[in-house]
Amino acid sequence: MGFSVAIIVSLAALTSAASVPNANLKRQVSQLQSSYDFVVVGGGTSGLTVADRLTQHLTTKKTLVIEYGDIQFAPGQFDPPTNWITPHPNAPPSWNFNSLPNPEFNGKTAFVRAGQVLGGSSAVNGMFFDRGTKFDHNAMAELSGDDGGPPLTKWNWSGMYSYFKKSVTFTPPSASVAAKYNYTWDEAAYGGTGPVYSSMARFQWADQPVLRRAWQEMGINPVKECADGTKEGICWAPASQHPITALRSHAGNAHYANVQPRANYDLIVKHQVVRVVYPNGPKSGPPRVEVRSLLDNTLFNVTVTGEVILSAGALHTPSILQRSGIGPSAFLASAGISTVIDLPGVGSNLQDHSGPPVTWSYSSPYPSFGPLPSQMTSNATFKAEATAAFSQTPAEGPYTLAGGNSAIFVSLPHMTAQYKTITKKIRKMATDGSASAYLPPDIRTDPAMKAGYKQQLLVLAELLENPDSPSLESPWATSEAPGGAMALSFLLHPLSRGTVRLNLSSPLDQPILDYRAGSNPVDFDLHLAQVRFLRRLFNTTTLQGLGATETAPGAAVAADDAALKGYVKQAAYLSFMHPCCTAAMMPKPKGGVVGRDLKVHGAKGLRVVDMSVLPILPAAHLSATAYAVGEKAADIIIADWE
């Protein structure tokens, strides 16, 4: 069977798995075994990675994955029949959250989406498949503490790089495509044969090079490869898609459909994990897993003989812990839940990327080149040709682009000469104790949370001062947008901290998100520096030659701190769909929830493996990191049990 045929077959298997009998796919409690060695809670990016590796290597041990959603086909971010990044009619369901109003942003809410399907957010995301820097991971390792454990539990860049490689198979573009779009890469940064595919698009919109030229005029240099731990500059990033079909590659096919059948690997769908239960206290684990059927609302327990691995994601893992009595004791008391373990960090370190755009229009729109995304809606022939091209082998044309694969990453010292003024503010608030006033009210007096936040701020100050450590991302695929063009500003290392808390009126429903964006005022210093930097676009020969006219924020607004801060409050997106850090890997005396072995502090037989364990956000979209964390976690668990 040929390579491309094999992947089409496996994807078809996943698409139809919900209706085709499968001995390993369960839909009701009567189909489950009497007990399992491992129960993985959540069939998402990290959870399916762990389940795949455990069942592959610990063949005598039985693993059950419990997934809230179902098995469904997951189209790419930009697959037929859509127009330029519009909702796909066959897209799998997702959880859509609106946070509580953010007072510092005039009551604006953050909109957040997470996958509610086998494969989790890897099945619904934008497919931008980049990695954080070595500085990010070294900082996270510093925050995780040194518990004297084995080298396997070190989370610095050298301890993570091999897992990024292990998780993916990268296929370089052809020589002709690489030459056409000036793609660069270094295969040494990949080198793996992992089950997740990544590749470069075989198409770019005609105006994509416009911003690339403008960035270079601003002094931002192209980077040959941005997946090797360094990425300050102009980056190409692969998409999580197959190199032949250009179909989305996600955890549901990579770590489930393509490895079945395995006698020791069961999956039950359409079931919600309510909580984990320690009948004899948390030192007597592993816990039982209490599960609710979404089909008939019945409750039952799953007996676990080895470990429970929570992989429900940064927004749902804290909910399960809190329903289990593991979390901030004061909040648990307000919810009427008996405290099993007082861990104030559960759901208390929420972070996400955010920021406003800089926008402009052109005096004479693109008289000399095309195609442009607007042709997907204005030119039926062009769209039909694009659809036909996607059906070719290999796939060609616009639909292979996903959501785009280019971005700039810029450090604070390369944005503003005032960077040390900003980092001095951060260090001062950390050392004089005033920073605790910016923590969520219910934890700001907790000694552990204060100590942990102080350390985070000091580490972040070091990152922000490092000229090789990006603090701004601006991704782009085309500069055409409704009403004009834009360059987005991602704040990569926010200082504000939010919360994920149970909905007290309905604890089984989706949790309440309080993003608390801008609660640390230095975030606005960073936003202002980033917007002012991006406005330098309008001084470039390239944009001036196209008659670019700034529409927001404008020179007068940008010249005044108060006015520009008002623009940021009005225009910012408060979530770029990268929530993390709500069960942080830090020592318990510093507000941590898990140790470097990912075991929940004080809870025997319970680990967390998802993006909630990151102490701080990396300078990256989170999909590739979620796979790497899953791969590393699996090795840690396997080493324990072998």
From TrEMBL:
Family matches, as InterPro entries: FAD/NAD-bd_sf (IPR036188), GMC_OxRdtase (IPR012132), GMC_OxRdtase_N (IPR000172), GMC_OxRtase_C (IPR007867)
Positions of the catalytic residues: 578 (proton donor), 621 (proton acceptor)
Cofactor: FAD
Keyword Signal on entry: yes
Record-listed FAD binding positions: 45-46, 117, 273
A GO BP entry: secondary metabolite biosynthetic process
GO MF entries: flavin adenine dinucleotide binding; oxidoreductase activity, acting on CH-OH group of donors
Keywords associated with the record: FAD, Flavoprotein, Signal
Domain named Glucose-methanol-choline oxidoreductase N-terminal: residues: 313-327
Signal sequence coordinates: 1-17
Protein family (similarity comment): Belongs to the GMC oxidoreductase family.
Protein name stated in the entry: GMC oxidoreductase-like protein
Species of the source: Schizothecium vesticola
